[in-house]
Write a structure and sequence with these properties.
The structure is a homodimer. By secondary structure, the first copy, chain A, is an alpha/beta fold. The first copy, chain A, folds into 3 domains: about 160 residues, FAD/NAD(P)-binding domain (3-Layer(bba) Sandwich); about 110 residues, FAD/NAD(P)-binding domain (3-Layer(bba) Sandwich), CATH 3.50.50; about 110 residues, Enolase-like, domain 1 (2-Layer Sandwich). In chain A, the strands form 7 sheets. The first copy, chain A, has a 5-stranded parallel beta sheet with strand order 3-2-1-7-17. In chain A, strands 9-15-10-11-12 form a 5-stranded parallel beta sheet. In chain A, a hairpin with a 6-residue loop joins strand 18 and strand 19. In chain A, helix 1 packs parallel to helix 8. The longest helix of chain A is centred in the last third of the chain and has 15 residues. The termini of chain A are far apart.
Chain lengths: ~425, ~425
């Protein structure tokens, strides 16, 4: 049995490694079109910022590691240009063919560059190690002074902080009215005011039609970073007859199967299921890619495993603040047909006598079922842990009254006697 | 309607405040035998350590605050010496009587001093503000050099750190084989080795029969701290005909009712239910006391609310390390009739390129149901958040396969792509 995996980053390598654990005899080949595999894409902003010293630090494993330790053949510079499923073979650029019995498509995503002027010098999009290297060189050598970032998703917000660290004036344009693709006016307002304190200007509901290196939508700049979201790399799959969903990404069963027998997909090229709505969603994130990859790999190796989907959890560092979301915002919940009720509180994340900093917690419940269906946490400390509690509660369809009684850890160096989550849940119960 | 609350710290004041919110007309009196109310007992070690500058910082509210803001009469120095339930009245020291329609007993707990020599100078137990003041004076004026701490529960471990901060040599005696009352050899070993690095000696399975100020069980010392656990203050309740459970603390319904109609109890004088075993347990902690108090207060004011119980979550700071537990350990689970399976992992709490420190996670599942029933988390960062995820998962009876797929937040400044919790869950699944 031969397993071919197209793509050698998060999802692809998770699939290959898991397939190997499930079946020691499988012949496994990973085909990566780039020069490196197994690199942490999420670390790129921190390389640009300087906290990560060199790009090599982001590379977790080499192809040699996979060959030696896992008996997995990993080829770099190996671009698949066609999948002929009827013959169970892929064709590489150059004409070489590789046969497969099982195929995992993990072709990832690319930054949305559908804007006039995207190819000009001084305009960058961050998708690979080389993009980061070029941008860092530009920052150091050209010493730009004014940057425009297009997009206020997590990457745009991270890049705004990176560029401020380098001393640039930063303006962020966002086509939607909200940050983080969240439809959450309160969250957006919080982030906007925080960015303003760091002299990052956020211009919402402003679609940028074209960029020039010297100005964008009337804002003078000598650097433009495109961070207007991700496009799934589905062209190869579509040509092979693999179906995409309404999100434009590959449609999958819970077992990560495409519509073609024996062909799986995982990661940023594919849809996943939103656990609150039960509907397909396109939320390309590294942690989801790894989980999907594991399941695809297991099933490709003959197991029967499922990936239920995501709660929609996302955390981003914004100028010293942790901003995290999970589930749906109130507005999103209404769009999805829920009858949402929201509560917002701001309470210390530790006792006052321990100089607890404020943590802002928003909870969204569905009136009909009294279940938690969304939440945000913003603060300096303890943000990841708190959003994870909410993600767990959402995943288990916890009711707000049960959330309010949760036995959360308390000791002065770590948390207050009433955690902001519990206070927010009590607040929500008053109106529920 | 008159509500009398006996005890003016966590449970008592939570009950009074909640009762007021539920019923603006109720006549509410809180009787506190001590000189202060509403003080944070859990902050005492940090006052002794010096991070909390003065005891007054631990006092959240004054009696005047409750009178003015909540219309609650709070009397200090008001010791209740008898409850005559047939007459619906309590008697104060001095003979004064106070009638009630509803009563909340929140008499708290006291340190176990059942040891010869407990009353000698140089021997301290920490239960009130005055105890802390006396011990701090002793530390500053007498400059003791060698301390013995009796008990390796959370208070004993906190005090060991406090005394090391003051430069004392510290030996901790524990009657049981394990720390934190947990029956967890691996956890105990971890804590013992960590304490040794800070030159705190831990002597387990050593019951101390008597203390002298100069030596304890052969260890020379000029200071002894008793931290051998808590005894519920139930004498007053028992004399009034209130039943205690097998734990020795007041037995309660889910509504915090005692066996006497109209008499509720809450906090450290009472039992609660362990959510994993469904059985009564005595786990006196501030956060539980507050939750129980709220429910007791609501019901005393005519609502119908319940407190389901606790997962058994506890966190303690031990010389720079966060040590947290929830649910049952493997050994405890076996004693309780489960068929437990454990997994232990140590994995970085952030990406390696972000200098992630190791986090040790232990998960305990029940083979029969595949549910998570216990966990520990030890590390420098992110311990509270992670134990809270496990506590939430235990409370919702989550299965390990669902835990392994949780959509936990990921971004390099906050967490690794594979959180140690997910790695531990995957590890557990291999054997489950």
């Amino acid at each position: 049995m031969r397993l071919v995996v197209i793509g050698g980053v998060a999802a692809g390598l998770s699939a290959a490694a898991r397939a190997r654990r499930c079946d020691p005899c499988l012949e496994i080949t990973v085909l990566e079109k780039g020069a490196a595999v197994a690199w942490g894409a999420c670390g790129l902003p921190y390389y640009l910022e300087g906290r990560v010293g060199c790009l090599e630090d982001l590379v977790v494993h080499t192809p040699e590691y996979f060959r030696r330790e896992r008996n997995i053949a990993v080829r770099t510079g190996a671009e698949v240009v066609a999948v002929e499923h009827s013959r169970r073979q892929v064709t590489l650029a150059g004409g070489e063919r590789a046969p497969y019995d099982r195929l995992v498509v993990a072709t990832g995503a690319r930054p949305d560059r559908s804007i006039d002027g995207a190819g000009e010098p001084g305009v960058f999009a961050l998708s690979g190690l080389e993009d980061a290297r070029r941008l860092r060189s530009f920052l150091i050598e050209k010493r730009p002074r004014r940057a425009v970032v297009i997009g206020a998703g997590y990457q745009g917000l991270e890049m705004a902080e990176v560029l401020r660290t380098h001393g640039l004036a930063v303006t962020v344009f966002e086509a939607q009215r909200d940050v983080l693709g969240r439809h959450d006016a309160a969250l957006t307002d919080f982030v906007r005011r925080h960015l303003e304190r760091f002299r990052v200007e956020l211009r919402l509901a402003t679609r940028v039609e074209s960029v020039e290196p010297e100005s964008v939508a009337g804002v003078a700049c000598d650097l433009v970073v495109l961070a207007a979201g991700w496009k799934p790399n589905v062209e190869l799959a579509v040509e092979a007859g693999i179906q995409v969903g309404r999100t434009g990404a590959i449609r999958l069963s819970e077992r990560m199967e495409t519509n073609l027998a024996g062909v799986y997909a995982a990661g940023d090229c594919a849809e996943t299921t939103h656990l609150v709505t039960g509907r397909p969603v396109y939320l390309p994130l590294g942690t989801t890619a790894n989980k999907m990859g594991r399941v695809a790999g297991a099933n490709a190796a003959g197991r029967r495993e499922g990936f239920p989907g995501v709660a929609g959890t996302c955390i981003v560092g914004v100028c010293g603040l942790g901003v995290a979301v999970t589930g749906l915002s109130g507005a999103q919940a209404r769009q999805e047909g829920f009858d949402p009720l929201e509560a917002r509180v701001e309470a210390p994340g530790k006792p006052r006598y321990f100089q607890g900093q404020p943590v802002a917690v928003t909870l969204v419940a569905d009136r009909g079922t009294r279940r938690l269906i969304g939440g945000t946490v913003i603060g300096r400390d303890g943000v990841a842990g708190r959003i994870n509690v909410l993600a767990t509660a959402i995943t288990t369809q916890m009711r707000v009254e049960d959330l309010a009684q949760l036995d959360l850890a308390y000791a002065p160096p770590f948390a207050p006697v009433w955690d902001p989550i519990l206070i927010a849940a009590q607040q929500l119960l008053k109106d529920l």
